[in-house]
Amino acid sequence: FGSVVYDTLENEVPVITITDEVGSWEQQEKVDVFDEKICPGSQGEYKFVIDNESIQKIEYRINIKHFYNNEEVEYFPLVYRLKKEFKYLTGINWVQASELNFDELLLTGGKDQNFVLEWKWPYEGESDELDTLLGYSQGTYYITIDVKAEIYNGK
Predict the structure, then answer these.
(1) What is the enclosing helix (H) or strand (E) of 130?
(2) C-alpha separations of 144 from 1, 54, 105, 110, 152 in Å
(3) CB 39 within 8 A of CB 48
(4) Please, what's the b/e burial string for 100-138 (b: 16 or more CB within 10 A of its CB; e: otherwise)?
(5) Most buried by CB count within 10 Å: which residue of 6, 19, 69, 70?
(6) pLDDT tens-digit profile of 71-104?
(7) Paired strand residues for 113
(8) φ, ψ for residue 138, nearest 5 deg
């Protein structure tokens, strides 16, 4: 789901590390965003921290995609909101995972930022038929959280 990002100008010194309550993303085979089975009416949140271990300011981006049965999908009945340091990056609106793309985020050297990814599957979604079909199919749903960073060049 994510990994340590390296600064190639400094002989592969880590620029950021990303951790959750289990530990570093780099040390985990997969990150458990959904701590239970998901179904209509379920909701939860996933907390993670991005830590800039460099002494320099970094610019980073976060992109989230969702997959069903190992294929990227544009729509799934789950909706999300992402908070950075207690402020919603999405506004208060719930959005599809494919709308969670944030560029030009900045982080001062030696600092960290806390994130909360809130998710829910509205009980009264857009399509009861689709909810029922997905529930009975027992397919696999997952998301990827891609974080890329580089030393900020001020441009």
Answers:
(1) helix 128-137
(2) 5, 25, 19, 26, 24
(3) no
(4) beeeebebeeeebbebebbbbbeeebeeeeebeebeeee
(5) 19
(6) 998 888 899 999 999 999 989 999 999 899 999 9
(7) 50
(8) 50, 40
